[in-house]
Amino acid sequence: MKNGATLKRREMKVVAAYLLAVLGGNTCPSEKDLKKILGSVGAEADDDRIQLLLSQVEGKDITELIAAGREKLASVPAGGGGAVAVAAPAAGGGAAPAAEEKKEEKKEEKEESDDDMGFSLFD
């Protein structure tokens, strides 16, 4: 499994380098451009993966590719816990502040866990 995770990180590094180049104004980054970006952060530049990515995005609009990717991700189950249930406030409104506090605590815990997903983008 670890080998598969390493493989995915390498692929994502190439995709990230491509997106950085596009965000930097280069609408059609070359292999050399991607290698330069990856090298600037000390990441390995895998020629095969770079060529594969460039062949797959050739002639396509990046915004359309991102939109298509979002549609695909929307159908992927997120997994994990269920939704947070919030009780309806009582007539006096006493239950609402307690429910909001619990909701805020839950949100803060989630934000802390998202800081480090166990790997760096440029390992």
Spans of at least 5 consecutive residues whose pLDDT stays below 50 are: none
| Largest sheet, strands/sense/barrel | none
Instruction: Give the helix level as a range of percent.
Output: 55-70%
Structural class: mainly alpha
- Note the overall shape: globular
The percentage of residues in β strands lies in under 5%
Averaging pLDDT over every residue, what do you get?
A: 76
**CA distance, first residue to last residue:** 17 Å
Count of individual helical segments: 5
Number of strands: 0
The topology string of helices and strands comes to HHHHH
C-alpha-based Rg, rounded: 21 Å
What does this entry look like structurally?
- With 123 residues, the chain is mainly alpha-helical.
- The protein is 62% helix and 0% strand.
- Helix 1 crosses helix 2.
- The longest helix has 22 residues.
- It is globular.
- The two termini are 17 Å apart.
- The relative contact order is 0.11.
- The model has no long low-confidence stretch (mean pLDDT 76).
- GO terms for molecular function: structural constituent of ribosome.
Task: Describe the secondary-structure layout.
Layout: H1 2-23, H2 31-40, H3 47-57, H4 62-74, H5 95-114
Helix pairs in contact: 1-2
Keywords: Ribonucleoprotein, Ribosomal protein
Subunit structure: P1 and P2 exist as dimers at the large ribosomal subunit.
Biased composition (Basic and acidic residues): 99-110
What's the short version?
This protein is mostly helical. The protein has helices at 2-23, 31-40, 47-57, 62-74, 95-114.
List keywords for this structure.
globular; 62% helix; 123 residues; mainly alpha; 0% strand
